[in-house]
């Protein structure tokens, strides 16, 4: 093992040296032997457990300082402890996606000579929310403080909160109207925002004057700094107990151990080989106010992923063939892509042992330059990058799951995460004051199914394994809307032997405000942005918004007449239209319209997860329970699953097993009668491909993929036996 | 070392193990003898004799059939050489109209069939729905999985194929 004194090299040189050693030895920081672990494994494990406890405790303490329901109620926060070079040693629970994005932030400062200017000193506080430096999107604001021991930098403590208001062109944090970086909100670009453990007053003033709801951001800053100081002091105390040399060595060994554990876990749980999958995302903004015509208003992205697992256990994910960045809010930086990889790994493979940056080091991402995954223009917006990140890492989860199934660990197979559209809002609050907020009940979508059971209903999102929708009463304190409904959306999980988890829909009455702006993002309404697996279907596409302006709800209530509390199950006429008078509005895709006012009604639904396995194998008894409890409709039970239900004496649905067996046999026959050999289908479709007989958005997608990727071009051409370039990019130079 | 009986693994694979027991399995250290135990469970499930080498989906297996290694449906239908995409030898039903999509999504808003279609890959013998692709019209059929079978057995399992 290479033993480096704590302060022999300047930080930047030390970082470059560490990277060189990794390159040369294949081991983190050149650590080829886990000497301390081998000497005293119990001490080694105990120390890491202590560090993790420091993190968990600091986060919980900090959540009590925050004013934001996003942090207090839903837990949109994570903290971690880093090496001097910025590699995560230990982390808390929470939005773990940011453990590695913070690592990038620290390394960026080191590589940009922050040691010289603005200097890195004891008591300094640095903040960042620039995704090209190291975060996912503007609302993800991170703070780090250096940890010094007797004048030597021995590590960093870092914390991230997702802010509910970022001061962008529209209120909230996920600013879907941002088409360039200049409309995303308040940027803090690797800035020293405090000294001597105190946040600078001028920085606070800047926040107060540039945000719609500064109390959230500013108190979150205080919460983060408090958590960092708490972790810093704990680490200093630990060093005084174990000695500086031991700390400097053991903190690196923890990471190398994490790297080795990830490789071992891959070898234990999967099968080597090439895995492929894809998903899509469709964006519809034609005719919506506010969007500048900088690019096509409606577009379709393909997200193909090829994952390779080698026999040494390394996982490589390759996004070649995907689409270019665009003038929209959904681009992502390599930091965000890293974060997505990290948070997915922690959920699926790092569920025990030393969870840290070592896991990330056992993987590789290939992000083609110029695509939405790695823009070659740092002016692009990334305000809603989750819109593409979540579908992409849902594919990753399905690819990993294919490996789990092949290896026999069916209980780990999971159809994956889905988008969960967000509501952003602002205007005049119910207290008569200006306000802005992101509604974070979206952090409780339906999950994909498992290979052995249904997905989780209203209990999962990819970015935070501690999914929580928050209590209605807490949200009502923070916005001028009151709930008149929050209920399961029937059939919102993808159909399958095991269905995807269901999502929910909320309905609100706008209350005590003359001016409420409501904006939403992350809607793929024209295409599925999720998938099923092993015969399961994707969950439905993002549902349309339904609102009622100038409703007569107060009159109905006064007369004691029934209201509508959810859209209902008729896709053509909602229950709002059936029961409530007023001007009814149906909007596809992002909701960007004129402000609402008291008496209006607004509804918003979230997404369910994809299904697993053949629908004709679903348990009829479980299905009857689903129908009784509103997770499935009778129509779906009958026509999708082939399950015949009858009513018991009290009117509850029960499965007629014999009739179901008969009906399913008939459906299987019909299925075979309708199907044709794939070879015949390819021969027929080839004519359509040759004529490029597709919608303009589909043709544009192919042209863009062909322009960016020779592999996509070759694969497309080989599959259809055509010249893809001449069909979709005629006249272009090859 | 963690290990479970073949009966427990059988019930787990069938989704019939009680949830508390399943959860304990999910939370415990993994049982390193799982692969061959699971293969034995699948082997009991199928009516044919070809040795299963690797499960690749809910009802699809790579097996040794004489000198060949093929992808086989649980019903016995062969989809050919395991290195080739089994989907190319399947039957397909494509849902690319609102009416066809509505059959699967009776109560929800639908995707635009001009932008996206659903492809159902079906066993031509038994009618099992093995895989569903949601793709833009014209998108090539994806080859989901090309396992490194030799490397897996030789280097990870330490056993000859």
From TrEMBL, chain A:
Pfam families: Hydantoinase_B
Coiled coil (UniProt feature): none
Stretches assigned to the Hydantoinase B/oxoprolinase domain: 40-614
Top-rank taxon, per record: Bacteria
Source organism of this protein record: Mesorhizobium qingshengii
Protein name per Swiss-Prot or TrEMBL: Hydantoinase B/oxoprolinase family protein
TrEMBL record, chain B:
Pfam families in the record: Acetone_carb_G
Name of this chain's protein: Acetone carboxylase subunit gamma
Gene source species: Mesorhizobium qingshengii
Origin organism lineage: Bacteria, Pseudomonadati, Pseudomonadota, Alphaproteobacteria, Hyphomicrobiales
């Amino acid at each position: 093992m290479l033993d480096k004194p704590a302060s022999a090299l300047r930080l930047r040189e030390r970082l470059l040296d560490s990277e060189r050693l990794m390159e040369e030895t294949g081991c983190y920081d050149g650590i080829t032997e886990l000497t301390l672990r081998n000497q005293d494994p119990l001490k080694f494990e105990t120390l890491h457990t202590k560090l993790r406890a420091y993190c968990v405790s600091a986060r919980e303490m900090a959540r009590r300082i925050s004013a934001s329901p996003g942090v207090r109620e839903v837990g949109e926060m994570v903290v971690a402890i880093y090496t001097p070079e910025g590699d995560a040693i230990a982390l808390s629970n929470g939005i773990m996606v940011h453990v590695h994005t913070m690592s990038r932030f620290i390394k960026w400062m080191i590589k940009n000579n922050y040691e010289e200017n603005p200097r890195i000193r004891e008591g300094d506080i640095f903040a960042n929310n620039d995704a090209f430096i190291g975060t996912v999107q503007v609302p993800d604001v991170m703070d780090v403080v250096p940890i010094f021991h007797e004048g030597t930098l021995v590590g960093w403590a870092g914390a991230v909160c997702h802010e509910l208001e970022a001061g962008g062109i529209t209120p909230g944090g996920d600013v879907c109207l941002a088409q360039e970086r200049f409309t995303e909100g308040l940027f803090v670009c690797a800035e020293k925002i405090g000294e001597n453990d105190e946040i600078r007053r001028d920085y606070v003033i800047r926040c107060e004057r540039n945000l719609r709801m500064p109390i959230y951001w500013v108190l979150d800053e205080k919460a983060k700094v408090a958590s960092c100081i708490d972790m810093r002091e704990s680490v200093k105390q630990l060093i005084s107990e174990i000695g500086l040399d031991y700390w400097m060595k053991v903190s690196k060994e923890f990471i190398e151990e994490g790297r080795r554990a990830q490789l071992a876990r891959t070898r234990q749980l999967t099968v080597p080989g090439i895995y492929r999958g894809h998903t899509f995302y469709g964006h519809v903004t034609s005719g919506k106010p506010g969007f500048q015509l900088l690019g096509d208003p409606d577009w379709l992205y393909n997200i193909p992923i090829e994952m390779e697992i080698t026999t040494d256990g390394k996982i490589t994910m390759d996004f070649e063939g995907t689409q270019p960045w665009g003038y929209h809010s959904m681009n992502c930086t390599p930091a965000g892509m890293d974060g997505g990889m990290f948070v997915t790994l922690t959920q699926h493979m790092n569920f025990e042992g030393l969870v840290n940056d070592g896991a990330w080091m056992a993987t590789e991402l290939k992000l083609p330059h110029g695509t939405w995954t790695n823009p070659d223009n740092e002016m692009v917006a990334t305000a809603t990058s989750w819109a593409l990140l979540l579908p992409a890492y849902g594919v990753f989860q399905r690819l990993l799951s294919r490996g789990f199934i092949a290896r026999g660990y069916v209980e780990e197979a999971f159809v994956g995460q889905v988008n969960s559209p967000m509501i952003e809002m602002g205007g005049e609050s119910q207290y008569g004051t200006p306000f802005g907020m992101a509604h974070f009940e979206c952090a409780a979508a339906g999950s994909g199914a498992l290979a052995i059971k249904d997905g989780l209903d209203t209990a999962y999102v990819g970015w935070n394994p501690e999914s929580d929708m928050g209590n209605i009463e807490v949200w009502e304190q923070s916005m001028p809307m009151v709930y008149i409904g929050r209920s399961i959306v029937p059939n919102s999980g993808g159909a399958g032997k095991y269905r995807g988890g269901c999502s929910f829909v909320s309905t609100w009455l706008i209350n005590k405000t003359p001016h409420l702006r409501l904006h939403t993002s992350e809607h793929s309404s024209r295409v599925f942005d999720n998938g099923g697996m092993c015969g399961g279907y994707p969950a439905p596409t993002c549902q349309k918004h339904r609102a009622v302006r100038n409703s007569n709800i107060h009159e109905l209530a006064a007369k004691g007449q029934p209201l509508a509390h959810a859209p209902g199950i008729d896709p053509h006429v909602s229950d709002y239209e059936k029961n409530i008078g007023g001007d009814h509005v149906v909007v596809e895709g992002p909701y960007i319209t004129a402000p609402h006012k008291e008496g209006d009604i607004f509804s918003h639904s979230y997404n369910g997860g994809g299904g697993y396995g053949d629908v004709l194998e679903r348990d009829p008894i479980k299905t009857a329970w689903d129908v009784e409890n509103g997770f499935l409709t009778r129509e779906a039970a009958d026509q999708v699953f082939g399950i015949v239900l009858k009513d018991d004496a009290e009117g509850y649905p029960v499965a007629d097993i014999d009739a179901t067996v008969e009906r399913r046999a008939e459906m299987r026959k019909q299925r075979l009668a309708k199907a044709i050999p794939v070879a015949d289908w390819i021969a027929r479709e080839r004519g359509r491909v040759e004529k490029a007989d597709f919608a303009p958005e589909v043709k544009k997608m192919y042209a863009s993929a062909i322009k960016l990727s020779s592999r996509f071009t070759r694969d497309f051409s080989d599959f259809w036996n055509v010249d893809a370039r001449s069909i979709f990019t005629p006249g272009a130079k090859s | 070392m963690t290990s479970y009986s073949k009966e427990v693994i059988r019930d787990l694979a069938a989704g019939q193990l009680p949830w508390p027991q399943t959860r304990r399995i999910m939370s415990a250290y993994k049982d390193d003898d799982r692969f061959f135990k699971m293969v034995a469970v699948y082997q009991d499930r199928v009516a044919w004799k070809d040795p299963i080498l690797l499960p690749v989906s809910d009802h699809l297996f790579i097996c040794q059939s004489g000198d060949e290694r093929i992808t086989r449906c649980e019903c016995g239908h062969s989809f050919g050489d395991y290195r080739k995409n089994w989907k190319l030898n399947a039957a397909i039903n494509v849902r690319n109209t609102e009416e066809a999509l509505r059959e699967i999504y009776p109560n929800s808003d639908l995707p635009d069939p001009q932008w996206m279609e659903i492809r159902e890959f079906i066993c031509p013998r038994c009618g099992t729905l093995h895989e569903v692709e949601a793709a833009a019209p014209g998108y090539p059929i994806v080859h989901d999985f090309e396992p490194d079978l030799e490397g897996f057995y030789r280097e990870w399992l330490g056993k000859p194929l």
